[in-house]
Design goal:
transferase; 2 domains; about 40% helix; Aspartate Aminotransferase, domain 1; alpha/beta; Aspartate Aminotransferase, domain 2; seven-stranded mixed sheet; pyridoxal phosphate
Length: about 425
Amino acid sequence: MIQDNPALIDAIRSRFAHVDACPFQGPRIFFENAGGALTLKQVVDTSAIYAAIPDNQGRDNPAAHALVDTINRAKADMAVLMNASSGQFFCGESGTELLFRLIRTACVNAPKGAKVIGSSIEHPASRSAARRWADIAGLDYVNVPHDNATGMVTAEDYAALMTPDVAVATILHASPVTGMGMDVAAISKAIRAVAPEAYIIVDGIQHAAHGQMDIDSYNVDGYAISPYKVFSRHGYGLAWISDRLTALPHDMLIDAPATGWEFGTRDTGAYATMSDVVDYFDWLGGEVSDETDRRARIVAAGRAIHAYETYLTSAMINGTGNLPGLRDMEHVTVLAGEDNPAREGLVSIVVHGMASPDVVTALNNQGIRTHTRKADHYSGNVLTPLGLSDCIRISMCHYNTIGEVAQALAAIKALGDS
């Protein structure tokens, strides 16, 4: 286990840039991972290498051939990381942009009068796309309400509103507001039990950093991530699509290959950094298991990450050492329940008597980086039903430490003592 191995924690932290200090602020604890995870040092090096190469893919020269090999390797690496034995991977502008493209394509190819189903817990990346393109395509949008108390939606919730005329379905893998993970495989099964031919598209952006993706087990048609939230960098998104979604009529250049989904020349360095990410998961899996198969090591890494992040969030909620946890602080309310097994490395709270932006500022002044979520177009779907105008998001990742949790608890406790 990671928490039982201080040397491993040190080795993990040594692989990330700015793990304990901000180049603008100085020493700080990074609990803003849901807004964008730390970047692997190898990703920084790889980005510099490919940024300097002037050549494009698709030419007949050694550099172009090498670039194509890099892209093909990255796609193969992503297939191992996400356990996708079919379909294809491609890059776009961002995870949000890719979700819009996938959902748009599914909607405009659906029969008139069919339905699109999604849930109220979803990030607007998928929810906005589904509602917009359902309206344009003449489809009915069906909203599956999430449970305010648990901050999640279940397969049973979807099943209650499913009908055979559902043509498109969207699923959020993990909420960036509540921190809860959804059972994608179970929700997909509930959808296909009633509408087996529906196109199912998953927003995996928040979930990806936690290291547990298994596309073959989900029986879905699309899965999008934002690499900057999974140890790579900003500037692009990455999507997987099934063979049958690949084959649907979609935006493309006239007479271009029918299976192509990318527009223009993509950044080879973006693909190359995803190989760095996969190599990192592979390395970590070798540190926490005796597995020899690469996919098995990645699975082991995902399990270890989940276990360690559960350890961190449990300490944040229940306390560590002589420090009380958030649940024992009278001035603090934890969103979505203190004992929620679906939690993935994230705890959102409200501090009574203080506006959340003021709490974030107070913590930041002590070198603890958190974030305010407001009841706006990003988070209003979760916060407004709770009667909240805002909350504080404390998002952790497996390179954070129990010592950092203790510092945050001491600082939050002091807010109630003042």
